[in-house]
Amino acid sequence: MQQDNLFAIFTEPISNSRISYFIGGSVASIVYGEPRLTHGIDVVLYINKAQASKLINLFPEEQFYIPPLEVLENEIELGAKGHINLIHHETGFKCDIYFTGNDELQLWALDNINEIEFMGSKLRIAPIEYVIVKKLIYFREGNSHKHLNDIKGMLRESSDIINYEVLQNYLKKYNVIDLFNQYFNNIITQ
Length: 190
Fold this sequence. Notes:
Order of helices and strands: HEHEHEHEEHEEHHHH
CATH topology: Beta Polymerase, domain 2
Strand content: 15-25%
């Protein structure tokens, strides 16, 4: 791992452990869209409660903040609603970890990741359709316009790789089709 590749601080141990994962959030939107500042990385794991101690062992407490085993097990049991934070002590860089649970969109994303090379590491990036849908869900929940700006950038820079049938399907299933049409229909029709 190259010293200045902060993403690899978290992704390499997970990759080496053979736990299935993908990167979403702002890092994925930057890959498909336009650069912006981010203070961490969002990772979605396919993991069960029995693997919780394996995850803790990947991130030694001398180097990382990781929640206690009981907290991790409880969050894994919450499935797609589960969430923990990891923090690398030396750099302060943060990793938000979410769990797939049985969430259809997240399981689909896991099966359709894009692997890219970045600063000497392979990164597993969520498909663009997933990133757009999740950004709209986050916007609906928190009204933060950074998510809309991220989507706008992805539509401008990567519209040619979007499977619009898949996108429409998940926009409908997660009840964000009206938001998409309200904010982005004019971009698609250009």
